[in-house]
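Shipment paperwork, digital attachment
Item: protein structure file
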Amino acid sequence: MFDGLATTLGQHTDIELTGFTVADRWSYHQWLKNNPGFESAGHFLVKEWEITANPNRPPDLDRLSLFEKQLSWTDGAGPGVFGAIVADRRLLMGPDCTYTQDYRRRFSDDQLLCILERACIAMEKAFDTIKPDLVVGFVCNSLLEYLGFLFARARGIRFLNLRTSRIENRILLSDSHRDPAPEVAKTYANAASISTTGMAQAKQLIQNARSVTAKYEGVVSPSSNPARKISIPRNPLTAALRFSRSLSEYRSSGAAADNHCPGLIRPLWFGAVRNPILARRTQRMLRDHYVTSADLAERRYAVFPLHTEPEISLTLYGRPYLNQVEVVRAIALSLPSDMILVIKEHPWMVGKRSLGMYKKFLNIPRVRLAAPELNLRDLIAKSSLVTLLTGSSGLEASILERPVVTLGPNMVTLLPDSMAVRCRDLTELPETISNLLNKHKHNEAALERLYAAIVENTTEINLYSGLLGRTDSYSTEERSRDTDLSNLATFLLKRAKQSFAKVPEEYEVGSW
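Attachment content:
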């Protein structure tokens, strides 16, 4: 995607030098087959597998401390460089974390710090060599991409973060990876800056979302079966031969030594055998514990949508709340006495979360587990309260006129506190919930203004189903890849020409 974007941008503006970070050696090896001239084109490349390989020397803590100070941008504050480790699941979590809940450690403390030091040195060299005018990232969920954000901010270089708005197929190029996106917040605060067209689009989007389930591009539909399926080949013998060749190529490519590469057998085992079996077993063991819409018809309840583990909603946006069991416990014990908490599994986690984890949830007083095939929208529509860490559920709840309490950053916190509230201190959660339930009042004008602010700062791109080529995700409409790349390049140039975020003068290039 980014190579295509750079090529498309080159048709509109002069680019002297382009740099890329690359995280997965096997994927990169496969991609180079169709793009053999990429490395000889003169791009500056930072390959993560060279940084994570054999991290067995003691870390230089003084050097890391210096990077910590250099990469902070306000009076020594900021997210901290170790956040780059936390954001990258393949450093923080176990080797099977993509396919199941895996909390095993891959690296010791010293190894993680050694990797972090190497990464900082590599990114410093990249920035010194390229001297970029613009840095573009994608949700900052890898070690190098997160550091790219920190280096750009510290040096006063424009950074744009590509991510979805979770409204149909509209995407943001934001000055921050956090919510609320600063450009959306600015537009929302200045209602006069919203165009008539933007407001009309916003009203139509809200109307569309109320008439049908508000699916956004890339989302996965609810099911009691795993979201990612591996189909059985028609000719097993031919498939086995192809797999044998791929396995041989994988081993000879050097990818087996890359921490980011799970191999070829592990994905096949989890996708075709282990996860489907676990999903069926979980369904059988918990079916008497699931609540349905009929069970909830006469109950007053709050909803909490679970997140996949790991994902950026936890490792990046909701870092203080990585343990969802304790988050659910805190919410359930903070509700009024006549309410229960209904938790809804994320479709991506079906067949991945252990049965023991569900039992931990169900051991918490007043917690109920929704059947996985239930639509979250139906639960939200009849709820008395929606609670969440981050994510799109807050927007859907606001559209359905439900009060929202969020623990992490979320776009809905721009709305009046009679609609949505962020609780930053769990000791105040009972009072926060009680106050919102008592004073909740829907404000349609504010909701329209929020949607209009999002419209004014986004464009329509099929990001997951188109540019990233994910066939297992929802697509709002058919579009060609070239069209999406052209639209993204145009949008990027527009955003790059807008005013830069203010950065303290002491962090100018060369001041280190």
